[in-house]
Each structure stands twice: as C-alpha cells, then as structure tokens.
Amino acid sequence: MLILNKTAGVFFKPSKRKVYEFLRSFNFHPGTLFLHKIVLGIETSCDDTAAAVVDETGNVLGEAIHSQTEVHLKTGGIVPAVAQQLHRDNIQRIVQEALSASRISPSDLSAIATTIKPGLALSLGVGLSFSLQLVGQLKKPFIPIHHMEAHALTIRLTNKVEFPFLVLLISGGHCLLALVQGVSDFLLLGKSLDIAPGDMLDKVARRLSLIKHPECSTMSGGKAIEHLAKQGNRFHFDIKPPLHRAKNCDFSFTGLQQLTNKRIMKKEKEEGIEEGQILSSAADIAATVQHTMACHIVKRTHRAILFCKQRDLLPQNNAVLVASGGVASNFYVRRALEILTNATQCTLLCPPPRLCTDNGIMIAWNGIERLRAGLGILHDIEGIRYEPKCPLGVDISKEVGEAAIKVPQLKIEI
Ligand code: KG4
Ligand code: ZN
C-alpha cells in the first residue's frame, strides 16, 4: 500500500494499521464481482492533477481533479517547479478520491494507465513515479499513455465512433490535425509551427490584464477571451488569418499574437491608459482574435478534410471530424467548425467541455482502449521514462503540402 510522506516528498511503506485505514477509506464492497475491465487513469502532464476509474463499457466509476489554473494565473504562466510541487501535494489525495468514489478495491483494477508523454518534464515525473510505485505495490499491468492520443480517443467514450476519423486537437500546449486509423495508428497531417492557440489566447488575455476584469478573474485565458468576446464587435478591426498562402495543414499563432499586441498598444495610447489597466475595447479585441483564430483553424481543417477525401482516407459522406483539447471547448470555434462540416457533408463531434480539457477520464479510457486492443500493456516497468517531447503518429504533413489543395471560400458568420 502506498502512502505519500509529504514532508520527505517520497513514498514509503506504512504500518499495518495505516494500510487498514487506507483500505477502509475506500468503502468498497468485498466480494463484489467485477466482470468488466477497470482502469485507473492518472494525468499530470501539465497543470492539472487528475485521476479517474473507468470501466470497459465507458462508465466513469470515479474521478477527481485538482486544477492549478488559479495559482498559475497569478504568476502569469506556468512555473514548472511550482506545477511539480502542486502535483506532489495533491496526487495522492486525487487518486484516493477517484478510487473512493468508484467504490472498488484497488485490487479489482485491471491496469493503471498514466500520461508519460508529451508534457512538462517535472509534471510528468510526478505522475509517473507515483504510478510506478502503485503498480509495483498492487502488482498490476502498467499502460503508458500519450496525452494527445488520449485527447483524440475520448470521443469513443462519449459517442459511437468507428475508425477512421479526423481529429483536430487544439489546446494550450498542442495544435494538430491527424487521421485516426486505429487506437495507436495516427497520420499527422499538420501541426502548429510555433505556439498553440490556447497559449496564444492565454498570452493575449495576460496582455489585456483580464485577470483584473471582475467577470474573468478566475478563468483561463482562453475562457476569458470567449467570455468577453460575446460582448465585443469582431469587425472593430481586421487581422488577416495566418499562413494565408501556405497550401498545407500547418498552423501558426505567433503572428496573430504579435499583431494583437500592436493593436493593444495602439489602443492604450488612444485611450491614454498604461499596460495593466483594462482597455474599454478589450471585448472587441477578444472578439477579433477569437474570430481570426477560428477562421485559421477552419481553413486548415477544411484542407485536411479535402486531402483525406481525395486520397480515400475518409469516406466521401458522413466522415467524422472530432475536435478536442481545451480550445475545442470554445463555442465560437465549435460553431465555426460546424459551418465547415455542414459544407463538406461531415459530422462534427466534440466531447463535452469538461472532457475537452485535461482530465483523468481520458487517460483511463485510453487505457481501456489499449487493453481491448492488446497494445502497450506492460508487465515489466523496468526502464520506463517520461518523454517531454513526443510526436503523434506518422508525419505526412509534407505530402499534404505537396498536394497544394486550394480551399474554397467559406463564410464564417456566427
Ligand atoms: O487541453 P488543456 O486543458 O491543456 C493542454 O493540454 O494544454 O487546454 C488548456 C488550454 C488553455 O490555453 C486555455 O486557455 C484553453 O485551453 N481554453 C480555452 C477555453 N477553455 C480553455 N480556449 C478557448 N476557449 C475556451 N472556452
Ligand atoms: Zn491536454
């Protein structure tokens, strides 16, 4: 049995009495027969400590999450050492809460699945070392999880979706378009050449000092932009979507961020205010940046749909586009993608917002998918390492660019 010694920050073997108390805290029913496979999923790749227990049929038996958003908002971004300490402080409680809520005994688990790539090294390390201790003590198989694979497969927990489907993953750390052909069979069609859209929104929100805005003070940057944009006028000023001439499926958001910064500086001068005060045109800026970002995302996704159909990688009718990741919880982006899927005879599917952002359920579900497919289930954990950088699937983005598909104009009027 695993207990975290908080002062030393290490795991140790507790006394028999402590083990008894720990087991009693789960309140499980001895003798209950579990016919389904059950996986405990653990996620610590960035700034959320999350865990969940999910069974083979997609039932979420228990879940718990500790978000660090508020702390990182105050420091103006994620400080890796702070994130690591917060993961250390919370991981045992979060895993315990998820297990207790599931009302199963840890011995009934079929496997433990944990994000080991990609992500912040210090954050990944906490989840991995905790999991390996647990795996060793419970003598369960270990399933290492690719964070983006987990985001991509979440939709198969909430909807009946067969392979192949197209996936758009847009979050704070990632931005990619991939064809999902199987549980761990991905073709990478395009990715961001610089920062991810969520990172761009977070930076713009910081530059606009939205943390001081009474309506947005506890929201992530992206959520704050979405909230304010509802009150703004996106026609207030015009920004050209990035990579206008590049006929591929890659993305870029740095230019958009810099143009927005310039616009903010100009407005500050006009309004006679200093950086750090809220602009009266903050909502208009939020609306414009959100709209331009959505148009860029739609254009690259449109090309990906056309490429896949041209190569018979997707069916001509009713192909599925899945959008996930934190930015896919944005309703303006979803609506823009819906306009695209309506125009291309595709179906847009998005997990509910709470499953778009990082969570333990997607990791546990990825574990179930891998258990069912018999892929990457480890009985020997010797030499397992986390990988801060790790591409997803086979990169065919060069081939996509060489196809140079022209995308017809699509009016994004929301
Ligand atoms: O998937 P996620 O929780 O973590 C990463 O893997 O990055 O995504 C977090 C990102 C943050 O950048 C946050 O600002 C953004 O997703 N985000 C949003 C919204 N909610 C979260 N962006 C736009 N609109 C939202 N409603
Ligand atoms: Zn994520």
Main sheet overview: 6 strands, mixed
Mean pLDDT over the full residue set:
91
Strand-residue proportion: 15-25%
Small molecules held by this entry = 5'-O-[(R)-(carboxyoxy)(hydroxy)phosphoryl]adenosine, zinc ion
Ends: how far apart? 54 Å
What is the approximate shape?
Answer: globular
Helical content class? 40-55%
**Structural class by sheet pairing and helices:** alpha/beta
By DSSP, the count of extended strands is 13
For the largest beta sheet, what order do the strands appear in spatially?
A: 12-11-8-9-10-13
The low-confidence parts are 1-20, 27-32
Number of helices: 14
- Using only C-alpha atoms, the radius of gyration works out to 22 Å
Sketch the topology as an H/E string, one letter per element. EEHEEEHHEHEHHEEEHHHHEHEHHEH
How would you describe the overall organization of this protein?
The chain is α/β, with parallel strands linked by helices and 414 residues long. It is 42% helix and 18% strand. The protein is built from 14 helices and 13 strands. The chain has helices at residues 16-24, 69-75, 80-102, 121-138, 147-153, 155-158, 197-207, 221-229, 254-271, 282-310, 331-343, 353-356, 361-373, 397-403; strands at 3-5, 10-12, 38-43, 48-55, 60-67, 111-117, 142-146, 165-170, 175-182, 185-191, 319-324, 346-349, 394-395. The strands form three sheets. It has a six-stranded mixed β-sheet, sandwiched between helices. Strand 6 (111-117), helix 4 and strand 7 (142-146) form a beta-alpha-beta unit. Helix 7 crosses helix 8 and helix 8 packs across helix 10. The longest helix has 29 residues, at 282-310. It is globular and about 65 Å long. The protein starts with a strand and ends in an 11-residue tail after the last helix. Residues 1-20 and 27-32 have low confidence and may be disordered. The protein binds 5'-O-[(R)-(carboxyoxy)(hydroxy)phosphoryl]adenosine and zinc ion.
